[in-house]
Amino acid sequence: MKKSDFYFDLPEELIAQNPISPRDRSRLMVLDRTEKTIRHHHFFELPSLLPENSVLVINTTKVIAARLYVVIDNKEGELLLLKKKKPHVWKCMVKPGKKFTRNTSFRVKGRQTSITGCVEKIHPDGTRDINFDMKGNFSQWLSENGYAPYPPYIKDTSASFEDYQTTYAKDEGSVAAPTAGLHFTDRVFEALKKRNIDIIPITLHVGRGTFLPVKSEYIQDHVMHKEWYELSQESAALLNKAKRENRSIIAVGTTSVRTLESNINKSTFTAKTEETDIFIYPGYTYKAVDGIITNFHLPESTLIMLISAFAGRDFILNAYRDAVNKKYRFYSFGDAMLIY
Q: Per CATH, which fold does 3-63+160-339 belong to?
């Protein structure tokens, strides 16, 4: 299949720049992949739309303040932290790349205090290992001085950093939010509890692949990025129990989908911590997931390919065209979709 097979026309004004308040007032498109029907609801109605006794799998990752602004060679620059290599050394995306030559030092402009950074290594993919020269705990400095790593299509927002976190975020490590989870509120969780819908936590730290387009003409030639995930002993046991009892497993977000589909083996989940580079596109047979809650994704992205594998490309693209016609809000701060 070609990446152009997953293109749809999206007016720029439908790209949400700010979140809805309260969170659960966002719209919710509901897709029945068997009957091929489309219904329109709001997110606070989600508990009544799920099968009773189903389980929801949520990603408890927390976004770090991964964006930093710098002065390098008397010019403005920017870093996006990707992965900690050592306590003070991080692999980063940099801009403009030509300024960040090896051994070059620069000033990092924190919101409260500034520090110095130095390029230790240049990787073939253009990322750099940056050594931050400071005393004390860099992670603490980062939380006080870094900026929210909003994706590039959010250009004019009044959102706070907390608006870009799920209400249940606790495990720091992501450079982008697992955005399907942004719609959940205490009200929604209380209603889920009343319907005997259990919540099972997993963790997958969202990495740089969130920002990378598919460049290959044929999608099977695309090399997927790796992301770290953890499935605890307790969560694995709960998932296996749900499988035995034939309870529906609903994944909140594509990050939860990728974790579960990476982990399952012969209908069994195993507690482990590892990296996954699973690439799900049409032709893939789902083994773990019975339903997906997700936001609306970029044209030609690996994420729209993932949900097309779950519900069928033609059905998904028809739903997206309907969403455009009905002026749903797209991407990180946009509306949601339930597919079952």
A: QueA-like (3.40.1780)
